[in-house]
Specification:
The protein is an alpha+beta fold and 386 residues long. The protein is 40% helix and 19% strand. The protein folds into two domains: 174 residues, no CATH class; 138 residues, no CATH class. The strands form three sheets. Strands 1, 2, 3, 4, 5, 6, 7 and 8 form an eight-stranded antiparallel sheet that branches. A five-stranded mixed sheet has the order 11-10-9-12-13, with helices on both faces. Strand 9 and strand 10 form a beta hairpin.
């Protein structure tokens, strides 16, 4: 089984320069390869000749043949893996069923995240060792210190190294064997909401007071950056005050992400430890975010990240994850009698205007049951496995 571990890198000045050069080289190879791929593809359409259609091998051989002298000072695997990813991106372009369907785009050097891939890295004494360029004497080249993993065991696959907000990170996929968790013969269901998750054992708050304070500070720094303009209307990116405010904003964004990810990781670990079967809703998060009212709350609630983490942990530990149908009326159905609200009887985010009920109240007008709306949704999800 492949288990990916994210770690933070602490390179020295020499290794920082090497990582930056490899990030730039990866972007150069991608853009050059994409331009060549587009040229071959357009030529095949214009001449109506299938033999001229581009492929990963054709583009890679052409770029290797036209290598310049400075490219030999960098890892050759960066070029090959970049073209390999480009080939996968083009393959997905012809499959409209992909969630992020679209034509591959050129990468910008202004993007906040830059990175590269390599399959020649090693873990030596708890440090990351990159492949050193041949026939080049570099002083200060050494293994890179890492943090973020107590124990890394297994065969290392293709790793991804990236730079974001002045910090360096690496995703280390390891071939490991994981033992299944002890069977508890218990079941649960999770009803995800903006600000909290409900399940059979209670409720998990995803909007803690500390997070709310951080969101207020983020809003404050965003307003400050919006006011820092030059006379001609451009951002004052070169001023010290602008860069200081931007650094504060990025720092708070990192704090928010760390708190949210820590909460999701702990909650999902608790679920796979305590339950054998877990039911969640198959929500169309992207479609839900089209609403301007709920888009910010949905983004901060990490619905997609929660499902992603829970899915791979259930696969790791042999637990069963059940996805309720996207149109399953977990909120509108009465868990006591099975009646489903229709028309004016439905509960919305504002409650029910006809009966003047609140959004967190569920009242069944057929059997008279009165429940909390989220608890009723959890009970309805549980019926899918009982």
């Amino acid at each position: 089984m492949i288990r990916t571990q994210k770690v933070r890198l602490y390179p020295n000045s020499t290794m920082k320069k090497a990582l930056d050069e490899l990030c730039d080289y990866r972007r150069f190879c991608w853009n050059q390869g994409l331009a060549l791929w587009n040229e071959m593809y357009d030529a095949s359409l214009l001449l109506d000749d299938k033999k001229l259609r581009p492929s990963e091998r054709k583009v890679r051989d052409e770029m290797v043949h036209n290598k310049q002298d400075w490219q030999y000072q960098l890892s050759s695997r960066t070029l090959q893996l970049a073209i390999s990813d480009l080939g996968k991106a083009w393959k997905n372009f012809f499959n409209r069923a992909q969630p992020d369907w679209g034509k591959p785009k050129f990468k910008s050097k202004k993007a906040p995240r830059q990175g590269f891939k390599t399959d020649q890295a090693k873990l030596v004494n708890g440090k990351l060792r990159l492949d050193k360029p041949r026939d080049i004497k570099i002083t200060g080249w050494q293994d890179i210190k890492i943090t973020g993993a107590k124990s890394l065991k297994g065969e290392l696959k293709v790793i991804s190294v990236y730079r974001e907000n002045g910090r360096y990170w690496a995703s280390l996929p390891l071939e490991t064997s994981l033992e299944s968790k002890v069977k508890t013969h218990r079941q649960t269901a999770v009803d995800v909401n903006v600000g909290h998750f409900n399940y059979t054992a209670g409720e998990i708050n995803t909007f803690s007071p500390h997070l709310q304070r951080l969101y207020k500070r983020i809003k404050h720094y965003q307003r400050q950056l919006a006011r820092k303009r030059n006379v001609d209307g451009r951002k004052a990116t070169g001023t010290n005050n602008y860069e200081k405010t931007r650094a504060k904003l990025q720092r708070d964004y990192r704090r928010v992400a760390n708190i949210q990810h820590d909460l999701i990781q702990k909650f999902t670990t608790k679920l796979v430890n305590d339950y054998d079967q877990i039911v969640i809703e198959d929500l169309d998060v992207k479609q839900m975010q089209m609403s301007h009212v709920a888009s910010k709350g949905l983004q901060r609630s990490l619905f997609g990240y929660f499902r992603q983490v829970l899915t791979y942990k259930c696969n790791w530990y042999g637990k069963e994850l059940v996805l309720a149908d996207r149109h399953y009326p977990s909120t509108q159905r009465c868990s006591a009698c099975g009646n489903i609200k229709q028309g004016m009887e439905k509960i919305t985010l504002a409650g029910n205007a006809k009966h003047h009920t609140k959004h967190n109240e569920y009242i069944c007008y057929k059997c008279g049951a009165v429940m909390d709306r989220d608890e009723n949704a959890v009970n309805n999800l549980l019926t899918l496995i009982q």
